[in-house]
Amino acid sequence: MCGIVGYTGFQDAYEVVINGLRRLEYRGYDSAGIVLEQGTNFDVAKTKGKVEDLVAISKNLIGKSHVGMGHTRWATHGVPSDRNSHPHISNNGKIAIVHNGIIENYDTIKTMLTEKGFVFHSETDTEVLVNLIQYLMDINADIDFPTAVRYALNEVYGAYAITVMHEDFPGVLVVARLGSPLAIGLGNNEYFIASDASPFVEFTKEAVYLEEGHMATISLEHGVDIRNIKDNVKIIPEVQQLKLSLEQIEKGGYEHFMLKEIFEQPKSIHDTLRGRLLVEEGIIKMAGIWDHLERLNQAQKITIIACGTSWHAGLIGEYLIEEFARIPVEVEYASEFRYRNPIITDKDIVIAISQSGETADTMAAIKMAKEKGAFVYGICNVVDSSISRVTDAGSYTHAGPEIGVASTKAFTSQLTVLSLIALKLGKHNGNLSNQEFMRLITELDALPKKVEEVLETTNDIVKDIAKHFIGAQNFLYLGRGYNFPAALEGALKLKEISYIHAEGYPAAEMKHGPIALIDENMPIVIIAPKQGHYDKIVSNVQEIKARKGKIIALVNKGDTQVASVADYVIEFPETSECFSPIIASIPLQLLAYYIAVYRGANVDQPRNLAKSVTVE
Ligand code: M6R
Question: Where is the Glutamine amidotransferase type-2 domain (predicted)?
């Protein structure tokens, strides 16, 4: 969602801020803006559109300032427009703000300020906040700028990450966070602010991640002064050493981040397994689980909460944990779970899955589960993300930064972590024999190689198949067992980036409704590995063929039965059914990618979508 970049130091603030905004483009946005300190004035440029549109109207600001901030906006209050873009400036022209999140009580404050004579030029909640800061300074002559920001934040509720500048306080940036992430990069005589570390990773490896409910006043003169927003208590910052490298967040020769990330999967899965899966010793070592193994094993039930792709991973997690550990599992959309008063007790385990670790609904669901006494285990990709900090224990997926909005490598790494958890629990509680455990972990260990193979052997084939479906209006994705959630995920990938309507179904459900849609214009992707209800799938394929549907079949190497009926065939290597979604997902990701590319869609930043969904 929205992105913030701020800078104070010796470099050209325009270049730092604009390049930083480019790095945050992946978060998803519809407008962009920048404000620079110009002596005792602000220079502001903002526009609906992309960062490059902003550059086109703001080149005159190059080299003009060493202090500034910028923003990419994902519209919440008010349509994407020049007026609603950030920064917003207070009525007296002295205070500038950029903001991520939502101020829920903005309407009441706006009414109060309007009565006091304030005028609003946008439909945003953000403009209300900046004028509230001005108002508090107007009526309290003795408070300084950071104090006014703090007072204002104590008046609002909702979620925010903000950066604020004041013309009368040159060189000072005031930042605060509640519900939206904000990192402060500590350079040598320069400071950076950003929604994540990617805008400043080339300048410094030292960062402070602002904690929930904290604010900081940053200046070259006084450094970084962190306070608790509520009561102004001084906080000693914990400085983190960034492991992120520039290479990880660049395209590395690929046309899109999504393609790069699809091709990174042999490595990302390997990284997920590294140090955890010790095949020769016959053990799975997971620090996050080890201390809590008994609690996990004694759980009356496990509830998995997540959104989007992570929810699909959760469904496969349900199959894995129930099959191998024999513990009942429920999978819930975090957004539903949190609003429906679910039965959760202190005997329950909740597993929260989130690539970004910032998804607002998942965060809120975790808080609720904790209040009900559950033990919450997190599976996150982003190290030190909000979710990884609020959970009781957890495992990182270690897939590396995922920049493409459509999740690919994070998904297969989530499945890999869930496989490790299920096998570890199953072995520990005796449901899995040693022999079966050894067979499965040997297969798990072989996955990076098989994923490499499937990338090599299917990329060109899938690219070619994709050409035939550029004009498709609808798609059906079918799978059974473990591959039903894989079908859901394949459909989600296609609709997210190509804007083609796509539905995933359990193959057997087809005859209970979706079969009515099938005619010669309906492409149907069917996942049909040898293991896992193959005979039943063969019947489903015949039913589709009889109605002239266009079949794209994902089958194991050497398959003849399904392959002979299908219009297009994609072969992938055999593995146990429980791991087949990991392998089958690769050609599904490629299919969505190539169709979207042929349709000229913006693959990495699909319309309306955001990488971290930090609003509810
Ligand atoms: O960061 P999270 O895993 O919590 O995000 C959840 C969803 O927003 C996310 O998976 C979304 O569906 C992606 N765009 C999928 O490609």
Answer: 2-221
pLDDT at 246: 78
Closest residue by Cα to atom 4, ligand 1, is 354
**Centre of ligand 1 from the C-alpha of residue 499, in Å:** 16
The two domains 3-249 and 454-603 share their CATH topology (first three levels equal): no
Q: Which two tokens stand for residue 287?
A: 């620090």
Let me know if domain 3-249 sits in CATH 3.60.20.10: yes
CB 216 within 8 A of CB 226: yes
Average pLDDT along the chain: 93
> What are the extents of the domains in the chain?
3-249, 251-445, 454-603
Res. 612: pLDDT tops 80: no
Q: Long-range contact list for 390-393, CB < 8 A, 24+ apart?
A: 390/363, 390/366, 391/352, 391/366, 392/292, 393/288, 393/289, 393/291, 393/292
Atom 9, ligand 1: residue with shortest CA distance: 308
Coil/strand/helix, residue 176:
strand
Ligand 1 binding pocket (C-beta < 6 A) is: 307-310, 354-356, 359, 362, 405-407, 496, 609, 612-613
pLDDT bucket at 566, cuts 50 / 70 / 90:
very high
Q: pLDDT-based confidence at 27, cuts 50/70/90?
A: confident
In the residue annotation, 578 being an active-site residue is answered as no
Query: What pLDDT score was predicted for residue 479?
Result: 95
Helices (H), 44-144: 51-58, 106-115, 125-139
Catalytic residue from among 50, 495, 550, 611: 611
- Give the pTM: 0.84
**pLDDT score at 438:** 97
Tokens of 376: 């919450």
Question: What spacing in Å lies between the alpha carbon of 217 and ligand 1's midpoint?
Answer: 33
Architecture of the 454-603 domain:
3-Layer(aba) Sandwich (3.40)
Q: Choosing from 2, 307, 380, 578, which is the catalytic residue? A: 2
Please indicate whether residue 2 is annotated as part of the active site. Answer: yes
408 Cβ partners below 8 Å, 6+ apart? Answer: 258, 261, 262, 265, 402, 493, 585, 589
Residue 155 has pLDDT above 90, yes or no: yes
Residue 62 CA to ligand 1 centre (angstroms): 36
CA of 136 to the centre of ligand 1 (A): 39
Residue 77 has pLDDT above 90, yes or no: no
Pick from 334, 297, 295, 296: which is nearest to 314 by CA?
334
Per CATH, which fold does 251-445 belong to?
Answer: Rossmann fold (3.40.50)
The model's pLDDT over 223-277, given as tens digits with 9 standing for 90+, comes to: 999 999 999 999 999 999 988 877 788 888 899 999 999 999 999 999 999 999 9
Q: Supply the residue whose CA is at minimum distance from atom 8 of ligand 1.
A: 308
27, 196, 407, 613: residue to mutate for ligand 1 pocket, most atoms within 8 A of CB:
407
Query: Which atom of ligand 1 is the closest one to the Cα of 356?
Result: 1
Q: What's the CA gap between 99 and 106, in Å, rounded? A: 13
